[in-house]
Amino acid sequence: MDKICVVGDRDSIYGFAALGLSIFPTAGDHEEDAKLLRRLADGEYGIIYITESCAAALSDVIAEYAEDVFPAIIQIPGVSGNTGAGIQGVKQSVEKAVGSDILFGNDD
Amino acid sequence: MASVNVNPTRMELTRLKKKLATAVKGHRLLKDKRDELMRQFLDLVREDMELRKKVEKGLADANREFVLARSGMDEQTLSEALMAPKQEVYLKKSTKNVMSVDIPVFDYETRTPDENDMYSYGFAFTSSDLDGAVSSLSEVFKDMLKLAEVEKSCQLMSAEIEKTRRRVNALEHVIIPETQEGIRYITMKLDENERSTQVRLMKVKDMMLNEAHGYDEKLKAPVEE
């Protein structure tokens, strides 16, 4: 049976512990965080929620797992506000598939 | 053009014809696959966008409540309250095959039978804002799970669509025209060879007849007379 974890700065993620998800605060150091994320992704976690700011710093590691079905690494907004990276990700996948963003191009 | 490099033999011609037939068939199949993938992808990605907006809004609200809760309690009480979670979520993952793309399907189970049994602290020393924050976070969690499933599917499908599109284009614009060109080249070369053989044979026949019957002398003779 797999688990779900949340990665990000402590303030953004501690609430998820109450729901029964595992939380892993990042150290802010790229090397350390990359190691942490790889360990989680190769481990028993099927879904990894990661805060947008954290995901931006670790985009190279996230890209390594882009083609695998598991784990699903999903960006969520952190406590410091929504950077729009998540929406951007959806738009990017449309662009990749269609060639240009025909669906959400006129939004916001 | 690359096709000039093919050997103008019958064997090569048969090979190219077979290749063309396969390429055309493959092209048609891949095109169908691309269209169907695209149709499903567009549905999925719309759902993804909707869910994402909902989740982001829900999380923003929950975060705001957590900030409020934090302001009403000291750091220590808060981390104590959330230190030992009562609830645990187990994830059941499986895959579903959509047009040869494996997409994830998630389902979850909670440790305690009651999903709402998640307040891991006594209510005496924590602010009521924390209860609200935790409950609004749990409300958004179901959508988050669905989002994970849908968004990952979208990512995988968009990669597959891109790959399929490249293949379709490569077949349509490179492989098929090149093979056709090769076939044309060989056919023409073979026809040309055949014609030259024919001409050579006719020539030889002429020469042999001439030798046997001496047409040339007979033709010349009346002129001399």
Please render the helix and strand layout as text.
The complex is a heterodimer of chains A (108) and B (225).
Chain A: E1 3-8, H1 10-13, H2 16-19, E2 22-25, H3 30-42, E3 45-51, H4 52-57, H5 59-64, E4 72-76, H6 85-98
Parallel strand pairs in A: 1-2, 1-3, 3-4
Chain B: H1 10-72, H2 75-81, E1 89-98, E2 101-110, H3 128-213, H4 215-224
Antiparallel strand pairs in B: 1-2
Description:
- The complex is a heterodimer of chains A (108) and B (225).
- With 108 residues, chain A is of the alpha/beta class.
- Chain A contains six helices and four strands, in the order E-H-H-E-H-E-H-H-E-H.
- Chain A has helices spanning 10-13, 16-19, 30-42, 52-57, 59-64, 85-98, and strands at residues 3-8, 22-25, 45-51, 72-76.
- The longest helix of chain A is centred in the last third of the chain and has 14 residues, at 85-98.
- Chain B has 225 residues and is mainly alpha-helical.
- Chain B has one domain (11-179): Orthogonal Bundle (Helix Hairpins).
- In chain B, strand 1 and strand 2 form a beta hairpin.
- The longest helix of chain B has 86 residues, at 128-213.
- The model of chain B has no long low-confidence stretch (mean pLDDT 85).
- Classes of the chains: A alpha/beta (108), B mainly alpha (225).
Helix content of chain A: 40-55%
Query: In one word, what is the shape of chain B?
Result: rod-shaped
Assembly state of the chains shown: heterodimer
Largest sheet of chain B: 2 strands, antiparallel
The Rg value of chain A, from CA coordinates, equals 14 Å
Find the count of extended strands of chain B (DSSP E, 2+ residues): 2
Low-pLDDT stretches of chain B: none
Q: What is the overall number of helices of chain A?
A: 6
User: Which shape of chain A, going by the Cα principal axes?
Assistant: globular
Q: Which strand order does the major sheet of chain B show?
A: 1-2
Residue share in helices of chain B? over 70%
CATH class membership of chain A = Alpha Beta
Instruction: Examine the coordinates and then state which fold CATH places here, giving the name of the CATH topology of chain A.
Output: Rossmann fold
> Termini of chain B, distance in Å?
61 Å
Order of strands side by side in the largest beta sheet of chain A? 2-1-3-4
Q: Kindly report the average pLDDT value of chain B.
A: 85
Rg value of chain B: 39 Å
Structural class of chain A: alpha/beta
Main sheet summary of chain A: 4 strands, parallel
N to C succession of SSEs of chain A? EHHEHEHHEH
